[in-house]
């Protein structure tokens, strides 16, 4: 039996001892660590087959933060958070870059393709967020359905996405600020002799990230108020861009419509997917939402439906105002208005873009810190980052980890390097989420038979293989069609097999994705297809990051999570489960 919570001395929030970073048994001495390393293969096997549960994510893990986050958000807040987290970086930054480099005027089709894929992912996120309303978002959902190892892969990619996403937006902020004060987009950066893509140092991006981090650490509710004001201003600018853009439209600029062919359209779609990536931050706020079952579907689905339409109209207005070959890749809209004689408009656009990017940084900082908090609750990263401040109700340590890491990346790396790596990480997570939804509907431990489980694995393998095959064939033979006569029927067979030969084991309590298994299966296919449309360099960087993640897992995470899982089991068997107030004494 453990000691009573009342007998445990309450510790200060501000702490930094070895026990706070590595409290697990495996790290208490070199002898314990070497013993743990000798058992690595057994521990990896244990973690690979381990799955969490809804109740564990909602109860025990939340208690490890010592203090609760404050439930202060409703559907109105979430809708505006949706606008704030999504509209900004993508549409103002990547539209010009991809229209110029890959898609031409067909960039509007790129936004349609990535928007359809994003909406499929939104449906999956919404069902999970309603059923498991915790701060961990996709990490928590994958931990429940695909297991501990799959959740670690997700955690690594989520942290990578969080750090790189913040860095990319902060560097774009600098470009638009330079335009606003009448200077070239790179004029405020410091040029060095470092290698290309890393030779323009950006101290302004670092400053902006630090300010955004401080605001989100103070209060979630106050951040919501700030987001409302900034998003309203941004909405006015967006309406101006669309109306004024079409008023100065020249249809001749749409010719040629797709100068780089379908390959360019889909490659651009994979990059501009980054513009939709912020919506997953809304799911992480479920723990702070007053009525998750009502507010999350309204906030997520409502905001994303409107955003998709806005993106298409803004992309079309840009390519009709200015020839795609003349579009500025750093500050596209400001320069485009200058080109049609509206010199004053570039300042309004730059101001709106800055407002949009500021809200992206703010909401991103909120969501990313909540991902990090829940990841730390499982001890995949040190549990210090799981702590919630008792007064602010915010995870300050998690905020600091993401903001400081993003600042280091933003100081050196170019937007082009960041966006391609970010897109592949985001698409990978979304494909995993769709897979997890299929598992949730068709597999329940102790209910699903071995035979049914084997069939589900077989059909899902067929779906993933067919989707990856379609993506690979597109990359190798963009103009071919023979390969699709094999991969597409394979995908249909895998999806139909689940529908016809397997019985659903779980029905959503409040809100669920329609047309299961077809829509989740289509989400897997579209995300993997867009991944294959990215350049080889993105996969090389992604592979290097994955290897680093796996090394960290083998030497640290597998041992910390193994120790915590077995400690929790021993405590439960002993009849005592610590509450959130049960913390280690000084």
TrEMBL record:
**Which residue windows are transmembrane per the record?**
78-96, 108-129, 149-179, 200-219, 225-245, 257-276, 296-316, 396-415, 421-444, 456-475, 481-502, 514-532, 538-558
* Name listed for the protein in its UniProt record: Cationic amino acid transporter 5
**InterPro entries cross-referenced by the UniProt entry:** AA/rel_permease1, CAT_C
**What Pfam families does the database record attribute to this sequence?**
AA_permease_2, AA_permease_C
Q: Which residues form the Cationic amino acid transporter C-terminal domain?
A: 511-559
List the subcellular locations: Membrane
UniProt keywords, alphabetically: Amino-acid transport, Membrane, Transmembrane, Transmembrane helix, Transport
Question: What cellular component terms from Gene Ontology apply here?
Answer: plasma membrane
In the record, what lineage is assigned to the organism producing the protein? Answer: Eukaryota, Viridiplantae, Streptophyta, Embryophyta, Tracheophyta
Q: How does it sit in the membrane?
A: Multi-pass membrane protein
**What's one GO MF term for it?**
L-lysine transmembrane transporter activity
Family designation? Belongs to the amino acid-polyamine-organocation (APC) superfamily. Cationic amino acid transporter (CAT) (TC 2.A.3.3) family.
**Where would you say this protein principally sits, based on its record?**
membrane
